[in-house]
Amino acid sequence: MKAENMYSPYEIEVEIVDDCPLRDNILNFFQIVYIVKGRGQQWVNDHKAPYQSGDLLLLIPEDKYSFDVEETTEFLFIKFNNFYLHDKKLGTDSVHQLEYILNNTSLRIGCVINSPNDKKLVESLTRTISDENRQQQLYSNDMVQQ
């Protein structure tokens, strides 16, 4: 098992893989994983669920996870920690509600969105985040952070 650490409030990465090098990793941060394209199996704490293009997955701290790639997969990883949540000035109640929701999703693995309209919205948002992160223009970091 490998612990994966993050030291900045958030990070964004895109990886295209035929075989996932991540096996039995344990996070110390939250991670949203958007499947840009591809398919395979997601493992979280010894439970497995299929993933496919357009799926949005959520991994939380202390979960052990792996991916079995069945078809070349492009992952968009959006990583963030509690510092990021508290820095957003959402208000104490909102932060506590968000933390509660995020920390109680380990009961469900696989895609966390069900509505076709939500899938379209998530696809648009993730494409925008990815484009802004890649371009690194004057306000790109502010756009991505929001």
Helicity range: 25-40%
Gross morphology: globular
Calculate Rg over CA atoms.
Answer: 15 Å
Number of helices: 4
Number of strands: 7
- Give the biggest sheet: 7 strands, mixed
Q: Show unreliable segments.
A: none
Overall mean pLDDT stands at 77
Taken as a percent bin, the fraction of beta residues is 35-45%
**What is the succession of H and E elements?**
EEEEEEEHHHH
Provide the structure class.
alpha+beta
Distance between the termini: 33 Å
Task: Note down, in words, how this protein is organized.
There is one protein chain. By secondary structure, the protein is α+β, with helices and mostly antiparallel strands. It is built from four helices and seven strands. Strands 1, 2, 3, 4, 5, 6 and 7 form a seven-stranded mixed β-sheet that branches. It is globular.
